[in-house]
Amino acid sequence: MAATRPRPKILFVEDETSISEPFSHALRREGFDAVVAGTAARALELAEQHEFDLVLLDLTLPDGDGRDVCREIRRGSHVPIVMLTARGTETDKIVGLELGADDYVVKPFAGGEVVARIRAILRRAGRQAADGELDREPEPEPVRTIGGLEVDGAARRVRLGGQELELARKEFDLLAELVRSAGHVVTREDLMARVWDENWFGSTKTLDVHVGWLRRKLGDDPGDPTYIHTVRGVGFRFSTPEELAP
């Protein structure tokens, strides 16, 4: 008889019991193991003590800002994070994604939509979702060198001219995706699906913002780019090693 695979473990950070109690029960009915934390301090304590498959994170907590919790978790973990908040402006979403969130859901939310997003993110992370999908072992990432830029996908480190760059989670993911396809145009839609999620329901403005941040950190002039070229109306293309050869 085949062994039963463990239920994906969700850390649900929410101080309003009117939300946390019914939705944590809904998560359990959908096949997840939901652990609730009502404060920022408790969330960080649980994140340190246990290995979770995903974090559902409210931003307004009684003892702190959920964005600080996201930042602290990101310092030592790549666990997927979905922010749940009443703050739904485009700027709020961009800031949340820049801090390392994988998705951003605005309250009030539909439980079915959030569950669908969780499953999509877990599939993307190669973990077992509630539908019983098996783990996938990612192929080892080679170190890619283009001009003075070195991208180490396995270690998630980037060096430019020998100096290490500090990139946020999504900045690294975006850069790695462009570098993997160096020399080829990657459409905006493909970048959003691969770097954010196939269930992304917002505008693609966040992509332009992240490209802008990347260009600044790479010292890339958008008017005369070395690395990231805009293909107007289509997407972006990264230079090849041959283009940057001395």
Descriptive notes:
There is one protein chain. The protein is an alpha/beta fold and 246 residues long. It folds into 2 domains: 116 residues, Response regulator (Rossmann fold, 3-Layer(aba) Sandwich), CATH 3.40.50; 96 residues, Winged helix-like DNA-binding domain superfamily/Winged helix DNA-binding domain (Arc Repressor Mutant, subunit A), CATH 1.10.10.10. It is built from 8 helices and 14 strands. The strands form 4 sheets. The protein has a 5-stranded parallel β-sheet, sandwiched between helices. Strands 8-9-10-11 form a 4-stranded antiparallel β-sheet, with helices on one face. A hairpin with a 4-residue loop joins strand 9 and strand 10. Helix 6 packs across helix 8. The longest helix is centred in the middle third of the chain and has 14 residues.
State the gist of this model.
This protein is an alpha/beta fold and 246 residues long. Helix content is 37%, strand content 22%. The protein folds into 2 domains: 9-124, Rossmann fold; 143-238, Winged helix-like DNA-binding domain superfamily/Winged helix DNA-binding domain (Arc Repressor Mutant, subunit A, Orthogonal Bundle), CATH 1.10.10.
